[in-house]
Design a protein that fits this description.
By secondary structure, the chain is an alpha+beta fold. The protein contains four helices and two strands. A two-stranded antiparallel ribbon has the order 1-2.
Length: 94
């Protein structure tokens, strides 16, 4: 499987450009370029319930967070949430 590189418009996002210019760090090089495992499918196969959302969708569910800007590198991110079915870890007081 071939790794996907961020489009040029993401690489030229003002946040990435400012970091390269001001502190000499290419933020996108901090991330592994290899394809990511399908965490949600792996957890679901083990009996977990999962949901996958973008950071913006997750924060919007809670009435928080900014909206993505044009060519926003975070818009491509996906967060996986998982819950293992079963009894609660802590019993509620009676």
């Amino acid at each position: 499987m071939k790794a996907i590189r961020e489009p040029e418009e993401v690489r030229n996002n003002p946040v990435c450009t400012a970091a390269r210019t001001r502190i000499g760090v290419d933020l996108l090089r901090l991330f592994d370029g290899e394809p990511r495992p399908d965490s949600a499918a792996g957890l679901a196969a083990l009996g977990w319930s999962t949901a996958t959302r973008t950071p913006f969708a997750f924060s919007a569910l809670h009435g928080r967070g900014p909206r993505p800007e044009a060519a926003d590198a975070l818009a491509a991110n996906r967060w996986t949430f998982a819950a293992k079915p079963g009894p609660p870890l802590v019993e509620a007081p009676a």
